[in-house]
Each structure stands twice: as C-alpha cells, then as structure tokens.
Write a structure and sequence with these properties.
Chains A, B, C: InterPro entries: Ammonium/urea_transptr, NH4_transpt_AmtB-like_dom, RhesusRHD. The structure is a homotrimer of 476-residue chains. Chain A contains 18 helices and three strands. Chain A is mainly alpha-helical and 476 residues long. Chain A has a single domain, classed as Ammonium transporter AmtB like domains (Ammonium transporter fold). Chain A has a three-stranded mixed beta sheet. In chain A, helix 9 (228-250) runs antiparallel to helix 10 (257-283). The longest helix of chain A is centred in the last third of the chain and has 30 residues, at 400-429. The two termini of chain A are 42 Å apart. Chains in contact: A-B, A-C, B-C.
Chain lengths: 476, 476, 476
C-alpha cells in the first residue's frame, strides 16, 4: 500500500487547521455533554446516598469505599498518561510542543469518550439504564486512552491534530468492543492490559502508519532526531512510566493480595529489564556507547510484558525472567527490526512502539496464557484460584488449562483487532481534508504551533536586541 | 494609581538584597520556632497516645487514622504547590530560577505561617489552648499558600524576593481571616477553594500589580517571552497541576462519597476544558496555530471553577458544562482581556492569573451558589444533604436555598478581601527599601541569582575553551 | 593516598565498556534470577492464599492488607530514588545522560540485590527458609539503594558505569550488614535512615572519592559546571526529593500515629531548612545573589537530619529547630568545607554529598540519641513508649536513657562502616580494568553515550542543513 500513494503526497497541502480543529473540538465536546447528560450518573460509592448504602450493605467504615483502595493507583496511572507518554515523546529536537500538547488533547478527549463506550459495555445499571461511574471507571478510561497514545507514538510528527482526534474517536470505540470480547465474552484476565491495551494499541498504530506511508520522509529527517536537552526531557517521561507501572498493572486488580502481587511482580520485571537493555545497547554499538533511544524505551518493556500475568502467582523469579527477555528483545528490535520494517515493510514507526508495546504485549499475552494454564490449587489455594481467575457464575466450571487456551485466543483477538482496525482507520485518515503536513514539514512544531523566536546564544548583545519580541500575552 | 508613580521608578535602585533577604529569612524563621514552641502540638491522631485514643473512641484499626484518608491527596497537593506552580512559571526565557526558586521560598515560609494563622482561627484545643495539627492542617496550609503563589503569578519578574516574603506574610494573614469568615461565620462550602483560594488570590495579586504599575516595562520586554525549552519546562507545571487537581478539590472533603465525588467532578471538568481551550486557541490565531500560553494555562481553568461545587451532586454532565465554558472564557481572556487590562486598567498580569484563577474562581463561586440553592433531598438523600452541607448544630435549620445565598455572599467577600488587601499590601511593597528591580531589569534572573555563563554553541571548540569556568562548588 | 596514584592516571586509558558492561549486566541479572528462584517468595499478604490468611487471623477487610498502609508512601519513595536523585544530578552542562541514566542502572540493579541481602538478614521465614517479600521490602530495597545513589553523587562524572555497578554490589552488601547490626543487634531506631542510609552512604562515597583522587581534574573542569537549563532540570530532582521526603521518613514507621507523626515532623523540618538556606546563600555571596547549588541541595538537609527522630515526639518546634540549623550548616559547608576538602583532604565531592547527607546524617543521629534519651512516659504514654521504641521481647527492660546511648553508638557504627567500606571498595575500583575516564574526559557524556549532534543555533539555515542527520532508530 505504501507505493501507491504518490498522488496523496504530491499535491499542495493545506495544514491550516483553523476551522477543522475548533470545529472538531467544539462539536465533540458538546456531544460529550449531551451524552453524559443522557447516560452517565455516579455509582453508589460516589453518590450522596452513600450513608444509606453503608447501612444497607453493613459497611462499617468510610475507608471501605473503593476510593481508598484505588485512588492512589489512579493518580499514578493519570501521571503515566499525561506526563509519562507526553514527555516520552518530547525527544525530537523540534516536536516537543506537538508531543506533549497533542498527547494532552487526545487523552482529554479520549477519557470522556472511553467513559461512555466502556460504560455502555460494562457498567449499565439495569435498574435505570444509566452508566454508573466511580474511580475504577476513571482508571479504565485512562487505560483505554493509553492504547491511543501508543498508536500516536507510531505516527508522531506525521499527522495533524485533527487526524489524531479522528483516530482517537475510532480507536476508543474499537477498544471498547475488543475489551468487551476479551474480558467479558472470553473471560480472559488482563490486569495490566498487555493484550487489550498494549498489543492492540501497537498493532493499530503500526497499521495506521503503514497506510499513511510517506516515501519521501527523508526530506524532513534532519528534524527526526534529538538534541541534548530534548533527550533529558524524554527521560522524565520514561522514568514516570517506569516508576508508576506497578500502579498501572495493579490498579484494577482485586482488593488485597491481587493488587499487592501485581505491584510486586511489575516492580521486579521492570528492574530486570533495565539491566538487559543497558547490556544490549552497549554491546551493539561501536565503542560500547549507550544509546538514549534504548534507555528511554526498552527499559519499559518489562512492564508491558508482565501486564497480563501481573495478578497471577508468577513468582518473583518469574517476573525477573519476563523482564530479562523483554529488555533484550525490545532493544534488539530498535537496532534491527525498526530499520527493517521501515525499509522493507514500509512501516514508519517514529517512536518504535513495536519494540516497546507490540512485541512485549504479545509476549505478555503468551506469559499470561502459560501461567494461567499452569495454575494449581496448591499454589493459589482453592479460594485464591477462584478469586484470581474469577471462576464464578457462568465460568465456575472452567479449569486453569482451559483458561490458558482462552488467554491465548484473547491475544490473537487483540492483535487482529489492532491490525484490522488500524487499516480501516488509516484509510479514513488518508482523506485529504484533515490538514496533515507535507513530507518536508514533518516533525516540525512550526506547522501547528506558534513557536517562540530562537535565542542567538552566540552573541549575548544580539540576543537581546536583534530579534522580534515575543510578548506572550499581547498577541492575537 | 499607575500614572502617579514616576518618582518611584526613576530613582537609582539598589537590588542588592544581601542584608535584607537574610534578615527577613532568619528573623521570621526564628519567630516561627518560638511561636510553634508556644502554640503548636500534635493532634490526637498524630500523638503517641494514639493507642489510648483508639481504645477510648472504640476505633478498631489503625487504618481509621485520618492519615490514610488524606495523605495520598496531601502529597498530590504538595506536588501542585511546589512543582506545579513552580514550573508553570518557568516559561520565561531568563526567569526560570526566579520562578521555581522564589516559589519554593515563599511556599516554605507560607506553610509555616499558615499553620499558625489557620490554627488560631480553626484548630485551638479548648482544653489547653494549643493548636493541634494533623495531616488536614498540612493540606490547608498548602491551600493557603496556593493563594500566595497565584498572586506571585501577577507580579512575576517584577519584584524582589524580599517583597515576595512581605507579600506572603500579609496575604496568609488576610487569607486566614477571609477563610474564617467564609467557612465558619457564613458557613459556606468551598471544598476546592474557588472563592477562598483562587478568587481571593487572583484579585489580591491583580490589586498588588496595579499599585506597583510600571509604565516603562517595555524596556525589559525582550525578556518577557519564552524560548522553546522554557515552554516545555512550563508544561511540566501545567500537567502536574492538571493531573492532581482532582486531589486538590477532594483533599479536605468528607470521608467516603465526598472525596470520591469531588475527584470525579474535577476530572471531568478538566477534561472538557482542554478541548475548548485548544479550540479557541486555534480559532483566534492566524493560520490556526496553537499558542503555548493558552495550553499551559487555560486548560486548568475547569479545575478552578469546579472547586466550590466539587463535593456537591453536580452530576457528571454538570462538571463537563463548567469545564466547557471555562476553557472558552479563560482562553478568550488571554487573547482580549489581558492586553486590555494592561493598556487601559494599568494592570500588568505577567502570568495572566485573571484568566486562570480570577474569572474561573468567580464562576466557581456562582456555580457553587446555584448548585447549593438547587439541592434537594431526593438527589442527596436526607442524611446526604446534612452531611454535604453540614446542616448541623447552629446551622441545622438552614435550607439549601438559604445556603445558596450565603454561597453567593461568600464569593463577594472573597473578591472584596482580595482587592482591598491587595491595594493595602501593594502600598506597603512600594516603600523604597525592598530591593525591587528597575524596569529594564525585570524578568531577568541576573538580578538576584548567580547565573552560569552561556554556552557558545556556535563553535564547539570555542565552547569548551573560551569562556569563564563555572566551578559550582569552589566559588564564594 | 591521593598523591601516590600518578601511575594510575598517566597510562593510556580504555573507556570502551562494550564487553565489560554487558558482561556485568548479563551475569549479574542471571544471578538474580537464579537466587530469586532459590530464595524469594511472596509473603502472606501478597500470596493468593490471602483469603485463608484473613480467616485465620480474623482480618475483617482487605483494607487491612499492609499494601494500603504503605503503597502510596512506597511510590513516593520510588519517585525520589529514580527522578529525585536522577534529576538532582543532571545539573552539569554535559553529564545529564550519565546522571539520570547511570542512576537508573544502578538503582535497578541495587533494588534486586538489596531484596536478597536484606531478606537474608531480616525476612527469612523459619518454616521454609525462604525470603518472604511484600511492599515493605520494596521500600527497604529502595532505601538501601538511596545510600548507593548518595555515594554516586561523590564520584559523579569520574567513574565508568562498570565501576558504579561494582560499587553498588559491594555497598548494598555492606549496607545490609550495617543495617542488621544497627536495627537488630543494637536495636536502634532509624525510621528515615539518617544514620543507616545517609551518614553511611555519604562517608562511603567520600572514602571512595578519596581513594580515587584525581590530581589533574582541573583539565576537565570546564565541564564541571552548569548551564541555565541544566540547573532547571536539577530543580526537578530537588523538588521531588523535598516534597516526598515526608513519605520517605514515614514509609516504614508503625501504622497509625507513627507514620502520621513522621510525615509531619519531616514536613516542618524541611520548610525551615529552605529559609535558612536562602539566607546563608544570599549573605555569603557578593551582591547577595543566590547560588543554585545551595538551593538545589541544602534545602534538603532538614529531611536528612530529622530522619532518625521522625517517629519520635520531637514536637513541631523541635522539627523546625532541626531544619533551621541544617539549612545553615549545609549551606556553609558548600561555601567553605567542600573547597577545603578538595584542596587539603584530597576529597573531590562532585555533588557536595558531605553537606547534604554526611553532616546532616550525623546531626540526625545525634538528634535521635538526645530525643530518645529524653523520652518520658508522660509525653508518649505507657503504650506509646513501648510502641515507638519497640521495648518488647529481648528489649522490654530497656529504658529511654539506655536507648539514647545505643542510638549514639549506632551513629558511630554507620560512619565507621561507611569510611571503612568506602576505602575497601575504592581500592577495588582502582584496578585498571573498569574503563574509567581520563582526567580530561571527566564530566563528559561523550565517553559512554551516543550524544546527538549540537544544534547550530546561531544560523537557523545552517542549523537545518549543515550537520549530520541523527536518525534515532536507524543506526547500529
């Protein structure tokens, strides 16, 4: 598909989004207000009737409100979404505004749309037909948006904010369907979303990037690289993702041991990943010099890969093993696979999401399937097995071995949804009305942002006299 | 008042704070030690007698200690105060040290003084006349300091650290009085401080800035603007404020549904604000380019405006509506109102706090009054209504409609206190002994900071050989 | 020792770590996997048998799981370790990659090794001989690593990543022994680790730096300084350390009043430190200008010094007094002591850890000893005294006065272990096989990192055309 889109790239392009971007933002936000008015209410732990709920349900203390079980984890996840993903993508020398700004925009829209979509599938109160939300819904909305931001990483610098909004609209919708199939119909377990979030988001983004292939991207490739300070900014993103990943993987786990175990497994897996990432990065460079791209990205692969099995009895050493191999595979991916995919498969993956989310997500699905299939009552305890895999109601006769099979099926579904949905949405995004940049304007904030004049640091006198004054508040 | 201060600006100025700043810091810190010694003790949840308290009050578990209800929110608020406000103000090309450094200084002083002032008004233990503090006091002290940092935003770059300390001293004092009147005497509800913190702080700062009007500020206006990296630094502040605002608005709410509801309302309001901010920013610029000033600031307006009503049954769609209009109004404020205020009203508002805190704070007060007046027992439940509005003791016969009136009165009081107090303190700050900078020295870290030599990035050889060595630890 | 190492510095050096760094990372990470497999399991609050544990131990709610008492504090500590320490050290103009990257590497290795070492000493389950881990172990592992990162601060920019890994291996080992002696054998109390972490880590690092003295370091001293933006990056580290220090000191305190009190004492101490740091910094500079080095570092000294006594009934004013003097002493240390130590004692302390961790750590030990010795039943209550000092089992007859003596002894042990261990490890690090940089290559990321080409900001046309394209993902 890459080679047939010459007409798409040659024509003169209009990157002015002065009408389309405000229109999209206003119309969609208005739609959100109306839909929330029609469909969304507080759940019983949020509602002012909580004192009555406590009496009815024999709850002795306010501390039993789900808020206190999940809010700290929610805030950590929130930081990952907005600062983690946002700053991770600021690494390019002239696309930091776009990275952190568009990340902000699509996440803010995505969480609202996700609350609705996930609500319709999962949280309808049958008594009044309303979606009832609480802190767990906020976490799930943030999770859903994570898959959009992963896909954003593949097309970073090559699309307009309007395209990103369109992509987010469709991706959230598809996500909710995929999630419903995997978690409810198939009844797979995916606490940290290796499959549902990471594999889906990555293959979605790669498919979009494939459809939007830009054969002449070399023209702007001077900008497709970092400068010293932008690499340090990106490390802010890396570290907040890395540190809070235990919260990500444990945020919606079962109260008590479930959350506790998921956090510890993730902590260990991530620690192991760092060492193997440094090892491979040094080993495959001339003179053994480390590459910031690897350190910024591959160190996170262990968090992705331990997601599905985070709540399982993976054991501390099991987590370390997962992290060990993911750091290795992910870094090798940056060194060999990304250039290969760009040259041969016509997939331009700006941030290398295939190495950070794609492969580790698939590995996570496989680890989840194997560890579910191998679960035994001696390791989990009778009640523990039921709790962990929710072998209740319709699924009370399911065995661990069968569960393993369903976990594997879930992984295939996530990848298929990603690829299929990505191609579909990519085709929509190729329509010539979204204001995307030309090939030689990619990776440049000038296209969509008022960028301040540069300092002439060579001459401090010139610096203060010679160039246009940028008064931040007086311009229209 | 702006036009009568020519003498104030023309004389030679001495910006050397070598004696005044240390004197102020030492004397005031010593005073804090003495006053804390005389007046401040731990409350019963902090004191080592807690095991006995548990028995007396029939508390079954340590988890019932207020620490576990509020500490995670406290830490989020703490990040907003020091990193959020601090980095939001680093946007100027040569005032990042002053932004983050003076923010640090005045917040560190302010929280101590606030613990005392708020303690005297709210937390005197009648048995021994002592102020008893716990985690809730720390949050309230941080809140109080937030109003000082808002005012700092109006005068950023135009005052000396000594002036800032003086301003903080008086503002905290006034804040405690205003807060006592609004929360205790009038018995208004203001969980997130739209009125008490934001409206008060903003109008205080604007009044100070009006009194300190600098007619020749154009001379330093080359520095009153951003460079590329400083705008990215400012986004760190923006995002930490944005992400943790749900904690801000819920931190001192009632246990259980109160905190839960406030967090969700704020989350939703902020999400809506982002979309309308992007829309207006793009719509009012030539070529539809986005302006970082709007993204950094107006995206936060929804958090301010939902503050008063955060704990009320505002409903998810209600929160979205509040956020929707605040993003719109705040961004338009940056585009039209700030230049107008500078030209016509002689109010120089460096960070545009009127758009981020002033107007949204007033809107928040109005939203609070309306939603309180409209509260019904069917929506809140009988007990829920009493809990939410604290219709107890002296106020047990108050109705929601009456409460709405008092809420509106509270808003007027906050604004009046802000304007009146700001003029008063502004006059004190005009005394020619505080070491403030001349007009052409504004927005420049050189005045109060040892600034490292610039890199000559044009020539890497020169860069390493030609300029003065800055050895960080060997200079005196 | 400094003067006898000419041969060590003169020979041609090979800084290529292409084989040694990967070898160390792979072998040690593999060892971790094996040792974790042999020795580490989940504790009963993490294990899937938790539902049974709840029944056996009559625990009524999942919220009683230690996870909910400690996880928020753990995450704050985690941020301090990776972002706090990492970014605090990015202040140098050309060593930000090394600062934040090597910090990441050694912390990720250190936490794994610490879980094992501390586990063997403290957490062996006698029924099966396994180390049983939970969230408290993660906090302790992070604590242990903090001492390694403190030592890293002394040698920052002057060692290779392989040396850092070796140093971490030995320092964690020594730490576990020292900690066992102080906490278990001597039964001293050190909630925030003033002695165990800070004094030990600082004197260890200083001793290593002494052994590795570089007489010709002046040659690279052009790089031993900051630029404007790097100082702002360092403030990110400072602030996250400052804000989360209350969590650090309270993270492993007793449930309830213990954690609550430790957080409040630390909050107050740190606030006081800021004011005295600003005072001294201004007072001792010509023209009263503030020095970023002091603001970045000395403002944190109060958190170190209140560590040991954080859980004690230090009283709010007591905490302020500790902070007051530490800001003063620490800043004076940067002004007078660090240059003196470099010239006379041949100790090159890149980050001035002696002022931030060494002296305040010792002060913390002394404060702890005095406040323990002065503890009375009237202040603590009978049960409170037993709880706070754990006067139980073998120590049930110990009195506060005796405890004070043991606290003082603990402080001496920590310092002795630091100095002795540091000299030993320093000698190991002097072996000429670790790839350390030559004197004129110190403080330069070029040695171990692929550093992106500089922007030519003088000429924007040149900037985009003239220099080598850095394509982040296509290089091998």
């Amino acid at each position: 598909m890459g080679n047939c889109i010459v007409p798409y790239c040659d024509g003169p392009k209009n990157t002015n989004v002065r009408w389309t971007l405000p229109a999209v933002c206003f119309v969609w936000q208005t739609a959100m207000v109306i839909l929330f008015g029609a469909f969304v209410r507080y759940n019983k732990e949020v509602d002012a009737h909580w004192p009555e709920t406590k009496i009815h349900e024999n709850i002795t203390s306010d501390i039993e409100n789900d808020f206190y079980f999940r809010y700290p984890s929610f805030q950590d996840v929130h930081v990952m979404i907005f600062v983690g993903f946002g700053f991770l993508m600021t690494f390019m020398k002239r696309y930091s505004f776009g990275a952190v700004g568009f990340n902000f925009l699509i996440a803010a829209f995505g969480i609202q749309w996700a609350l609705l979509m996930q609500g319709w599938f999962h949280h309808i109160d049958s008594t009044d037909g309303m979606i009832k939300i609480g802190v767990e819904n906020l976490i799930n909305a943030d999770f859903c948006v994570a898959s959009c931001l992963i896909a954003f990483g593949a097309v970073l610098g090559k699309v307009s904010p309007v395209q990103l909004m369109v992509m987010t609209l469709f991706e959230v919708t598809l996500f909710a369907v995929e999630e419903y199939i995997i978690l409810n119909l198939i009844h797979a377990n995916d606490a940290g979303g290796s499959m549902v979030i990471h594999a889906f988001g990555a293959y979605f983004g790669l498919a979009v990037s494939w459809v939007l292939y830009r054969p002449n991207l070399k023209e702007s490739s001077q900008l497709n690289g970092s400068v010293y300070h932008s690499d340090v900014f990106a490390m802010i993103g890396t570290l907040f993702l890395w540190m809070f990943w235990p919260s990500f993987n444990s945020a919606i786990c079962k109260h008590g041991d479930g959350q506790h175990r998921a956090a510890i497994n993730t902590y260990l897996s991530l620690a192991a990943t760092v060492l193997t990432t440094f090892a491979i990065s040094s080993l495959f460079q001339k003179h053994g010099k480390l590459d910031m791209v690897h350190i910024q990205n591959s160190t996170l692969a262990g968090g992705v890969a331990v997601g599905t099995a985070a709540e399982f009895m993976l054991m501390p050493y099991g987590s370390l093993i997962v992290g060990f191999f993911c750091g290795l595979i992910s870094t090798l991916g940056y060194i060999y696979l990304t250039p290969f995919m760009e040259r041969k498969l016509k997939i331009q993956d700006t941030c290398g999401i295939h190495n950070l989310h794609g492969m580790p997500g698939v590995i996570g699905g496989i680890v989840g399937a194997i560890s579910a299939a191998g679960a035994t009552e001696s390791v989990y305890g009778q009640q523990g097995l039921i709790n962990t895999f929710v072998f209740k109601d319709d699924f009370k006769h399911r065995t661990p071995a069968v569960q393993g099979g369903y976990q594997a099926a879930a992984m295939c579904i996530a990848v298929s949804f990603g690829i299929g949905g990505g191609i579909l949405v990519g085709l929509i995004l190729r329509m010539p009305l979204w204001g995307d940049p030309t090939d030689d304007n990619c990776f440049d904030d000038e296209v969509y942002w008022e960028v301040p004049e540069e300092e002439d640091s060579a001459d401090p006198v010139l610096q203060y006299n010679n160039h246009t004054v940028v008064n931040k508040h007086a311009e229209v």
